[in-house]
Design brief:
The structure holds 3 protein chains of 3 kinds. Chain B is α+β, with helices and mostly antiparallel strands. Chain B contains 3 helices and 7 strands. Chain C has one domain: Ubiquitin-like (UB roll), CATH 3.10.20. In chain C, a hairpin with a 2-residue loop joins strand 3 and strand 4. Classes of the chains: A mainly alpha, B alpha+beta, C alpha+beta.
Amino acid sequence: MDMKVAKKKLALKEKYRLLTRDLGWEPTYQNKDEIYPYTKYEGIRIHDWDKWEDPFRLTMDSYWKYQAEKERKFYAIIDAHAQNNGHLHITDARYLSALKIFLQAISPGEYAAGKGFARMGREFPGVGTQVACQMQAIDEIRHAQTQIHALSNYNKFYNGFHAFADARDRMWYCTVPRSFFDDAVSAGPFEFMIAIGFSFEYVLTNLLFVPFMSGAAYNGDMATVTFGFSAQSDEARHMTLGLECIKFMLEQDPANLPIVQGWIDKWFWRGFRVLGLVSTMMDYMLPKRVMSWREAWNIYGIENGTALFRDLARYGIRAPAGWDDAEKAIDHMSHQFMLGLYQWSFGTALHSWIPSDDDMAWLAKKYPDTFDKYYRPRWEHIKKLKAAGTQFANYGLAKLCQTCQLPIVFTEPDDPTRSAQREGEYKGEKYHFCSDGCQHIFENEPEKYIQAWLPMPQLFQDPIGGDLAAWMDWVGLRNGKDNGDFDGSEDQKNFDAWRAMATSNQ
Amino acid sequence: MSTVFIALQTNEDTRPIIDAIVIDNPNCTVNRQPAMIKIDAPGSLTVRRETIEEQLGRAFDLQELNVNLITLSGNVEEDEDTLTLRWNS
Amino acid sequence: MAVVSTKPYVGVPRDLVANFNGKQLVYACWDQHLLFAAPFLICVPPEMSFRELVDGPLTALMQPDPDASAVDWSKVEWLKSNKPFTPDFDASLAANGIGHKEQLRFITPGLNSLLAAA
């Protein structure tokens, strides 16, 4: 006879132990090194994989439950957004440029991270690690999908959204994040974890998702706030995974310290360069701004980063090598990028513009030491050129950094009046860099970076051969629609016309 | 002392959670920004299930936090009853 | 340093001069003139004379800057790979030692309209 016994609810730690530890087994007829062939060659020494702790202890049943809840919330809001003319509720159509950068340059990175974590879920031997990486792989795919879904509604009405998948591989500013993720995925599993789990997720994504998404809310963009915060709710788990991974490596063997520090130095700088574009989104592309890039950096870069590296000092970790150069760049980078985007706007699938007097007054207030002194005179001159009917376009294209692939818009850390130029030679070939950070990264692994597909030099090779119209066609850029000055653009005209229709019956 | 923080979406689910965090962490600072709330605290911050349940009037599984969590900072320690964020220096 | 890898790892550069159908890249940067957001990338044949480079593509690209018409090329100071360099205007780029992906920087003392005094 069956007896009904009241099932004792398992404690969280016990439940997690059962999920993770009892899923792993000792192989009997295969060598462990052959099952997990990539865990040793990077030089990281691990003695006991069971020491890996996932502090969130999320088991699969809970994972599916909460993720399903997030998806239901997300799609309910996306439906509401589409049903209620959400595309007209944003503050101003200039705001769309930030979304276009996001979709073209960032969402494909989510997908790449998904592929990377799926691989790490297979390559790491520890079960706790495998489970956490597999969950993160699914999360990242979810992020890419929800972002594409959310922004597809804007694609029905506005230009510049349609070719994001081609842009990912071909557009000059998109190869920057693409090369970042390619670099990470082509590294070993431990370096990947430092690259994405630690540097990108823990040190840098707060700068992207938190103030920028809050900014989306400020600008009436319900769809983006929703995907942003839905993604970010996974991010807390990802950041914790990144931090646990780094502590695990450092606790397992003191010989791991110099390797880990080298990766922190590299990936902090790689991430800082990629996230540079976010500075421009925050300072220039949000018509209503929550905080400046500088203010966001003070909170999420300086305050949070300092706390983190002070905590890790007990293992011998110091702040990343590029930390001071990053600080020196903060008050310049958004202006340098926006000036670049504006003068090369014939080649961008988004609009840029000359900041209004109001915007310039705000920038001067937020950047009291730099804006009026260095950047306002340039914008004022560009304004004059436009008024004279000779709108500024720089057809010289740009020298790109061999490592980060950004146009070298940066100045010397200690002299904002001089363009930063670094170069080196490898096997008789010249290579150029934007900074000491990028040059060091190259010099540590030149064979990797000489393979960089740099979009500007490629434009002059076959099959494009320097033909700008052929290039536009190839990247999916519709001249006169997707590119150029916001002022006079189809997006601007449509938004204004549709907005007017929404408030009038004529 | 380093600052830890937790950020949550602003919505009806999180209102009682935020109230509970403020009760349990009298040192904390609540920053209200568009669509989100960021709570800073010096050194450490603890979220307690019981206090949330008192505010909420129903049973609460601490992992429900995952649905509305935006970001956090500090080493995480979690069990059924508490979630603690802490910097070790 | 070598790439840490499980087997020998050899990369192939994608921007070798052979890929440019008889041309080469030259980078040029006008010192202290940051209206131009990055050094210019110019794709020209190595047989082009230095003068043709200056009077042709370089001069055309510089026009939006208010100092463009005031440049006296006989007084310009040049750097090649960050080292002082005296070009022979009538010789070809190749004869001037300006190879593929060479970085030129030119300084025009006294001209800096868009750069507020420090």
